[in-house]
């Protein structure tokens, strides 16, 4: 039965031979609901794998507690915990057939042949593995081997299923197929899943909840949309998706907007708590590439420095007051395109609401937040209002 997972003040400190300590995981707290798909995402060395290994019981905790449901599993060894791990390297037994690999854990549990068949057959059905049942792992492709590894984990019916970068050895196309398959099966069986990756698109497409980690700490927890649209730190806004940064100083504020003086322009930014900013305060405006619109309605002058047709999108780099901005235009077919060297006008939203260049879009009579946010240089972060007004 699917179990929730709770991490309470979890810390892992490694000490090397010289006595130097590294906080691989630094006092993290996290709640994963039962049946939820949670991804630990972050740059190399941020502590994702160590966190996963502590959940699995492969690594002792230096501090804190881990609960599966109501049970504190801190003292429970890995082989007695109600979880299974799918590894990057598949970790199949090379001398066993596919069927025997999948049954291995159940045989260790001394289940009867009937009981084993009852569990294994539906999983092999779901994963389309019957045709390979009697083959040896080395006769299978990487994708097929990973499917066997997943089936072997699923038949154990674990309370928590753990994935350690399971798709990184597969080619790009197969990765997409396999991640869709993992998500479909996880949803169908209602399993609690914790998945480690440094691949954003994998995290975005698989997860109910993304945990962004940085230097052993949790930067933000949220749905893929929250993480992308409402990042709570510069690190998250930069790490997830692509972000352009425009630095400036707050010139004035009202209840609903702030006017920011950037190097050469004044930009109005609509924000619920605009009034909390102070005049003269240094801020950076974070603009997502899709929020930059290049057309004749734009009021800001820029020069195209790079233009690349990618089929489904056109990518641009534009020089805007000495700042290089990365912009994308979706579905460029039939739209006017620009080339390097072209002088263009840009704006930063789908519709200009009140003034020269604001960052709200207007739909159906109310304003929605555009993919843009603000944080101040002392890291106090405030994002644009998503509320209707
Ligand atoms: N057994 C160990 N002994 C000493 N330091 C370790 C050990 N395992 C991990 N670390 C250190 O702990 C930190 C976190 O490592 P971890 O493998 O958890 O990061 P990660 O986010 O999973 O990275 P990657 O994406 O590269 O796998 C790193 O600085 C790493 O060097």
Automatic annotation (TrEMBL):
It comes from the Bacteria. Residues 5-240 form the ABC transporter domain. Signal peptide: none annotated. This is ABC transporter ATP-binding protein. One of its GO terms (molecular function) is ATP binding. The keyword Cell membrane applies. It holds the Pfam family TOBE_2. InterPro entries: AAA+_ATPase, ABC_transporter-like_ATP-bd, ABC_transporter-like_CS, ABC_transpr_MalK/UgpC-like, Mo/tungstate-bd_C_term_dom, P-loop_NTPase, Transp-assoc_OB_typ2. Keywords: ATP-binding, Cell membrane, Membrane, Nucleotide-binding, Translocase, Transport.
